[in-house]
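Throughout this review, each integer encodes one residue's backbone shape. One record appears below.

===
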Amino acid sequence: MLFVWQESQYDQFHEKKDRLVRVTMEYVYAGEHSHHAVTGSIVAPTFYREFPEVQSAIRFDYYPKTVKHEDRIFEESAFLHADSTFF
């Protein structure tokens, strides 16, 4: 029941929630299948090209990253990299 409830609440805050679609990718590592909501960089351009009804797309990556600013290097455990259309 908690799973169903969570899925039915996803993106409820958005005024155009009926027009949103979340893409999940299936990956296979050492024969094990897993699904993730993180999409590769090719997904958005492919969707724009193949589906003219797509108005906007957001790609994001949420993993630990090493970030450099000038001469300082930071290890960020929760770094979100997203397209400019994220907001």
Summary: The CA atoms of residues 48 and 54 lie 6 Å apart. The radius of gyration is 16 Å. The mean pLDDT is 85.
